């Protein structure tokens, strides 16, 4: 009845880890796409559009992700749009990520010196070329550390998908802990797994940040 | 969807608990197991479709049903009048006893004694309702997300007693036999039923017919022997405030 | 499906929900205070001469930043009793929030100190000020001003993170909401409204931060 | 070539240009000077519509600048601009800096664009640096790349906004020499600068601005020898005092 | 007043000062010039111990600079420094900038410190700006505040590191005038600058550095008229070419 924490349990956690990775990838891909749109709208120059985007960002940054998932999961179901849990979570994470990434990238776009845009305009380049060839490549470089930082948040945030029934890493940990009565060991292993997933990213991010800071000093 | 939709799709979506052995839990190989899982599989077989399990946290069971995310709940749903206002119960298929469990050394002999201790319960569970109603005013009741955290809280000493179902002692003693966990107070005997949405007659009738069938053909006795190590008890003909059939 | 929205349950539960807001704000503010203390102490330790102390701080920061809050708070709640430290859920929650926020604060404050132009520090030394005086009078205020947005942003996140403290039965808005939901089964209405309450809390906090910023950090820059 | 008439420009409540009239003939070289904040940058930025004007008209090479995207496009392709702070694109090599606009805006093929770019890079004596990134060049080299980049669009007019003032003293000369070469080739130029040696050497006219207005103008010799206005005298006095 | 003997300074493996000897008498005014990277800043930063030296000795006003905090303290109170980029404290008003060090380092009372500060602010003709923040001032005004701030510590020597090179041309004069005033009052000064007019007017000696060494020195007239070294000639040629 009460197995000890052994290989099968470890395997179970690993399967949870797979879900964590998958959810992260989906959320990040969705968030990047939508976030780019948010960032562009937020810097488009039309007062009203910028304000609407700003409120959108404010709402999703100002409420817990946990509750956003609840509302998406139950709220969309009420409108008759009955998505499976995966789609609901994907939408929830995407929307949340788009707000955070949108804000990060807005900052980066605005951090590209104004002279760059002016030089591009003076050369007769249009908005699409200015963004694609001049501003975004530089903005992405500037925003990379923050973007990676957010990716780490996202990985950790996927633990909240448990509330709509996903057995991802954190939930798997709870289940195993409940079966084995070894919470410290189990949460230790779970924590270590998150750490192994996140730490290389964090490390990469801070290295990038240090390099950028160095480049800016010059 | 409707019963017809389900049959057409060939899959019935069943809400179940994911981490509450031996009722409903996911085992280490990722398979849904427990007495509720066996019930669910038997039900799917009865319909002639495949079973798809959605593991739900305690607090999500009813919303998942009412918003149509699952077709039916076999999810340790105790039959309580206030819940019957939100969901349609079937006839009972399993019995459960709600008690207050503490270590042997903890002297609790009456409801009034609960006031001296910190009591843990899983939030929004039957235990929560029972302990909240029986404990003297001012008792410190801590509510956790699920049975797992509640049991953990008792084991780690964060609480001194927990509102328990029939299986808590067994699991607590497996973890720390030296403390000799035992039921101190008996609150109520409860019966669990399958849940469908209110007003959906067809689902309710089907569930009842299914339960009648496994009671008579010995299948339920098999589940009981496997999970409860006990014979099937006699179920009441009616429970006040909890209709078994859709009006 | 026949589900009609009914927000009256939310209305009836209003007092309880508002008390939940108070609980959340209390946890958040206490957590921020602790986080700030850990942050400042951590920055000092991070640049100390003792290698072991630096390694300790780095290890602490990396561990906290790379594991989920849920795992951290579980660990604190179930592990601290093993060493005989049995804290109530509120204390656990505050410590968990403080430790989590503190790790981020260390990095943010450090960035702020580093962002101060070297010339400022040199000008201080050239005027005959000592190391401590240079930090207190010349570095601190501009550094705090530089990091104010990220620090307060992190504190807003901390406030939202406190919703996870319901997992160890701490008293705050989400746990209140879950109680109400389980009494009424009106999940969507309750969660929708509670989401709105969080929005109000975080916007209120932002307003507060803006006022503080205006009061203490409003000197003109180019 | 360029005709500004009654141009008025406000930044919010602040009037940066007051009723400016200016005509520049083809091939003419104009040097614009004046105290800081007098509106020199604003004036030349209006010519290629980096700033919109509120009143008056600007006609460049026969095209009247209005709000239409088309007019702006045509004018920007005819007008090259060099900034004080170079504004090279740091993530592109020198060659890419020079070919981007011809390829994207003029829709010229890459091979042709690169050939043109190399020609102009040679012209500013920096042909061997084509594969480097801006950060790998000295300030003077960067500014010459910026000039080549503008030339690659084969503009009819070149605008310079204090092209040497961000340079170390030792590098000023190489940039000025490049500009003198350009002037000798007959390019129409408007140049904001305080390099009075340069003004003497190439300018057809020196224009002095103060407080958003053109105060005085004249051939360099006359302008420096006997400035008419008190404001001009004061300014020239300060500029030349400690040289 | 200042005596440097056999000073050697390394940044890691790079030697920034090579065997520098320099004696400055009380009241003497020295102008230091030389190409970028030649070690001018490094030299004067060693004098108030913003940089530590690896070999040689520096004696300032009778105090030998060693690693002791006390020696550093005494010397820093005797030596005022003005930086190229002003380095005013942005979160303090002009007056607070000027009183901070007297109050904290010299432990003078606030009233007295403010009186002194106002005196020196008047002296640099900026007394009416005392309540403003640095960001609200022009570059020239900021630099004058920086000078006043240094003077408030009543130093015996003033070091200037290219005090005018971050300024717009029009503002250079006001700062140079302030420095000339200071020189005429008899302050001992070491000044890194390329303002040759200033050097001619006030310097007792001009010192030319290259590659971490003092190459040549002399009275300004002789120095500019007939520099001895090829390196000096080349440098002066470039500096003076387009003026
Ligand atoms: N984007 C802007 N918003 C508001 N005011 C501006 C803006 N750009 C310039 N100004 C103001 O317009 C006036 C003219 O500015 P402009 O840059 O044209 O001066 P300038 O003659 O080029 O000076 P400088 O020699 O310092 O470059 C200045 O007072 C300036 O403060
Ligand atoms: N902190 C440092 N670390 C390493 N090298 C340095 C440092 N500071 C200066 N150097 C090097 O020492 C040399 C002398 O620098 P210094 O700043 O004294 O030159 P400078 O004569 O003042 O030049 P400039 O006219 O550009 O200010 C240069 O080659 C410089 O790169
Ligand atoms: Mg300008
Ligand atoms: Mg220097």
From TrEMBL, chain A:
Alphabetized UniProt keyword annotations: Cell membrane, Membrane, Transmembrane, Transmembrane helix, Transport
Q: Enumerate the Pfam families for this protein.
A: BPD_transp_1 (PF00528)
Where found? Cell inner membrane; Cell membrane
**GO cellular component labels:** ATP-binding cassette (ABC) transporter complex
List residues traversing the bilayer.
Answer: 20-41, 53-73, 85-105, 139-164, 184-204
**For this chain's UniProt record, which GO biological process terms are given?**
amino acid transport
Which segments constitute the ABC transmembrane type-1 domain? 17-202
Membrane topology note? Multi-pass membrane protein
Q: Does the keyword Cell membrane apply?
A: yes
What domain of life does the native source organism fall in? Bacteria
User: Cross-referenced InterPro entries, in alphabetical order?
Assistant: AA_ABC_transptr_permease_3TM (IPR010065), ArtM/GltK/GlnP/TcyL/YhdX-like (IPR043429), MetI-like (IPR000515), MetI-like_sf (IPR035906)
CDD domains per record = TM_PBP2 (cd06261)
Q: Does this UniProt record's set of keywords contain Lipid metabolism?
A: no
Q: Mostly located where?
A: membrane
Q: Which family does it belong to?
A: Belongs to the binding-protein-dependent transport system permease family. HisMQ subfamily.
Q: What PANTHER family does this protein's entry cite?
A: BLR6398 PROTEIN, MEMBRANE COMPONENT OF AMINO ACID ABC TRANSPORTER
The name under which this protein is listed is ABC transporter permease protein
**Which species expresses this protein natively?**
Bradyrhizobium vignae
From TrEMBL, chain C:
Q: Where are the transmembrane segments?
A: 16-45, 66-85, 146-170, 190-212
| Entry-linked InterPro entries | AA_ABC_transptr_permease_3TM (IPR010065), ArtM/GltK/GlnP/TcyL/YhdX-like (IPR043429), MetI-like (IPR000515), MetI-like_sf (IPR035906)
Alphabetically, which GO biological process terms does the record hold? amino acid transport
Sorted alphabetically, the keyword list is: Amino-acid transport, Cell membrane, Membrane, Transmembrane, Transmembrane helix, Transport
Give the multimer and partner information: The complex is composed of two ATP-binding proteins (GltL), two transmembrane proteins (GltJ and GltK) and a solute-binding protein (GltI).
Q: How does it sit in the membrane?
A: Multi-pass membrane protein
Q: What does this protein do?
A: Part of the ABC transporter complex GltIJKL involved in glutamate and aspartate uptake. Probably responsible for the translocation of the substrate across the membrane.
Classify the main location. membrane
Q: Where in the cell is it found?
A: Cell inner membrane; Cell membrane
Entry-linked Pfam families = BPD_transp_1 (PF00528)
Recorded GO cellular component terms are: ATP-binding cassette (ABC) transporter complex
Q: Which family does it belong to?
A: Belongs to the binding-protein-dependent transport system permease family. HisMQ subfamily.
Q: What CDD domains does the entry give? A: TM_PBP2
Q: In the record, what terms sit under GO molecular function? A: transmembrane transporter activity
Organism equals Bradyrhizobium vignae
Q: What is this protein called?
A: Glutamate/aspartate import permease protein GltK
Q: The ABC transmembrane type-1 domain covers which part of the protein?
A: 21-209
From TrEMBL, chains D, E:
**Could you tell me which Pfam families the record lists for this protein?**
ABC_tran
Q: Which PROSITE patterns match?
A: ABC_TRANSPORTER_1, ABC_TRANSPORTER_2
Q: Where is the signal peptide?
A: none
Superkingdom, taxonomy of origin: Bacteria
Q: Which GO terms describe its molecular function?
A: ATP binding
Domain (ABC transporter): give its ranges.
2-236
Q: Does the keyword Transport apply?
A: yes
| Keyword DNA-binding in record | no
Alphabetical list of CDD domains matching this protein: ABC_HisP_GlnQ (cd03262)
UniProt keyword list: ATP-binding, Nucleotide-binding, Transport
Question: What's its job?
Answer: Involved in beta-(1-->2)glucan export. Transmembrane domains (TMD) form a pore in the inner membrane and the ATP-binding domain (NBD) is responsible for energy generation.
Annotated family: Belongs to the ABC transporter superfamily.
Q: What is this protein called?
A: Amino acid ABC transporter ATP-binding protein
Instruction: Tell me what organism the protein belongs to.
Output: Bradyrhizobium vignae
């Amino acid at each position: 009845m009460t197995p000890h924490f052994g290989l099968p349990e470890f395997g179970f956690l690993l399967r949870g880890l797979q879900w964590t990775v998958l959810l992260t990838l989906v959320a990040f891909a969705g968030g990047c796409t939508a976030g780019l749109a948010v960032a562009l709208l937020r810097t488009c120059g039309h007062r009203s559009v910028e304000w609407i985007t700003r409120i959108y960002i404010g709402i999703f940054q100002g409420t817990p992700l946990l509750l956003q998932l609840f509302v998406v999961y139950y709220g969309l179901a009420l409108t008759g749009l009955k998505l499976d849990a995966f789609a609901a979570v994907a939408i929830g994470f995407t929307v949340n990520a788009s707000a955070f990434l949108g804000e990060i990238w807005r900052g980066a776009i605005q951090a590209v010196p104004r002279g760059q845009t002016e030089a591009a305009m003076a050369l007769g380049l249009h908005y699409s070329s200015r963004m694609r060839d001049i501003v975004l490549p530089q903005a992405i470089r500037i925003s990379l550390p923050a973007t990676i930082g957010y990716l780490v948040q996202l990985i950790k945030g996927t633990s909240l998908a448990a509330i709509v029934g996903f057995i991802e890493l954190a939930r798997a940990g709870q289940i195993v802990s409940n079966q084995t009565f070894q919470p410290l060991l189990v949460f230790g292993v779970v924590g270590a797994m998150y750490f192994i997933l996140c730490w290389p990213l964090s490390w990469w991010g801070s290295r990038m940040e240090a390099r950028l800071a160095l480049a800016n000093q010059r | 969807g409707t019963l017809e939709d389900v049959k057409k799709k060939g899959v019935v979506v069943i809400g179940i608990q994911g981490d509450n052995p031996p009722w409903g839990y996911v085992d280490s190989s990722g398979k849904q197991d427990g007495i509720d899982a066996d019930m669910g599989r038997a039900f799917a077989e009865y319909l002639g479709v495949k079973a798809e399990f959605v593991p739900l946290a305690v607090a999500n069971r009813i919303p998942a049903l009412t918003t149509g995310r699952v077709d039916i709940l076999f999810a340790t749903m105790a039959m309580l009048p206030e819940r019957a206002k939100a969901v349609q119960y079937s006839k009972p298929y399993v019995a459960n006893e709600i008690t207050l469990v503490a270590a042997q050394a903890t002297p609790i002999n009456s409801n009034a004694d609960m006031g001296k201790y910190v009591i843990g319960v899983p939030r929004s569970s039957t235990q929560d309702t029972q302990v909240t109603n029986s404990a003297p005013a001012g008792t410190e009741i801590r509510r956790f997300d699920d049975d797992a955290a509640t049991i953990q809280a008792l084991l780690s000493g964060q609480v001194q007693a927990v509102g328990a179902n029939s299986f808590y002692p067994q699991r607590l003693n497996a973890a720390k036999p030296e403390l000799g966990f035992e039921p101190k107070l008996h609150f109520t005997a409860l019966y669990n039923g399958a849940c469908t949405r209110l007003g959906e007659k067809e689902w309710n009738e089907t569930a009842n017919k299914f339960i009648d069938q496994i009671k008579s053909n010995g299948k339920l006795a098999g589940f009981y022997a496997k999970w409860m190590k006990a014979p099937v008890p006699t179920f009441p003909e009616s429970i006040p405030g909890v209709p078994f059939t859709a009006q | 499906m026949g589900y009609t929205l009914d927000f009256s349950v939310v209305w009836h539960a209003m007092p309880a929900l508002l008390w939940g807001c108070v609980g959340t704000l209390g946890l958040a503010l206490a957590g921020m205070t602790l986080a700030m203390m850990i942050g400042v102490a951590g920055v000092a330790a991070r640049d100390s001469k003792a290698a072991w102390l630096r390694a300790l701080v780095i290890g602490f920061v990396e561990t906290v930043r790379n594991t989920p809050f849920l795992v951290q708070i579980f660990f604190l709640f179930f592990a601290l009793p093993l060493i005989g430290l049995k804290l109530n859920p509120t204390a656990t929650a505050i410590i968990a929030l403080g430790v989590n926020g503190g790790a981020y604060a260390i990095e943010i404050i450090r960035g702020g100190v580093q962002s101060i132009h070297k010339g400022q520090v040199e000008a201080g030394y050239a005027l005959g000020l000592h190391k401590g005086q240079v930090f207190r009078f010349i570095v601190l205020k501009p550094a705090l001003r530089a990091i104010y947005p990220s620090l307060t942003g992190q504190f807003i996140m901390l406030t939202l993170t406190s919703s996870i403290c319901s997992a160890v039965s701490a008293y705050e808005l989400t746990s209140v909401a879950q109680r109400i939901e389980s009494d009424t089964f009106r999940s969507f209405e309750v969660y929708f409204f509670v989401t709105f309450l969080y929005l109000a809390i975080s916007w209120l906090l932002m307003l507060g931060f803006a006022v503080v910023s205006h009061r203490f950090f409003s000197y003109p820059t180019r | 070539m360029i005709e500004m008439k009654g141009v008025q420009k406000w930044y919010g409540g602040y009037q940066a240009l007051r009723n400016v009239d200016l005509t520049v003939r083809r091939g003419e070289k104009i040097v614009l000077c004046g105290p800081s904040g007098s509106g020199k940058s604003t004036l030349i930025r209006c010519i290629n519509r980096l700033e919109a004007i509120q009143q008056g008209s600007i006609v460049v090479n026969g095209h009247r600048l209005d709000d239409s995207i088309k007019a702006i496009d045509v004018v920007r392709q005819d007008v090259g601009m060099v900034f004080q702070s170079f504004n090279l694109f740091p993530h592109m090599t020198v060659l890419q800096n020079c070919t981007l606009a011809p390829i994207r805006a003029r829709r010229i093929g890459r091979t042709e664009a690169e050939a043109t770019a190399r020609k102009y890079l040679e012209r500013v004596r920096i042909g061997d640096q084509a594969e480097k990134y801006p950060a790998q060049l000295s300030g003077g080299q960067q500014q010459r790349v910026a000039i080549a980049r503008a030339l690659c669009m084969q503009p009819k007019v070149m605008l310079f906004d204090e092209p040497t003032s961000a340079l170390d003293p030792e590098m000023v000369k190489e940039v000025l020499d490049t500009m003198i070469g350009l002037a000798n080739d007959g390019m129409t130029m408007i140049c904001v600068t305080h390099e009075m040696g340069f003004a003497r050497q190439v300018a057809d006219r020196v224009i002095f601005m103060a407080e958003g207005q053109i105060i005085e103008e004249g051939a360099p010799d006359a302008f420096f020898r006997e400035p008419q206005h008190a404001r001009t005298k004061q300014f020239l006095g300060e500029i030349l005092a400690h040289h």
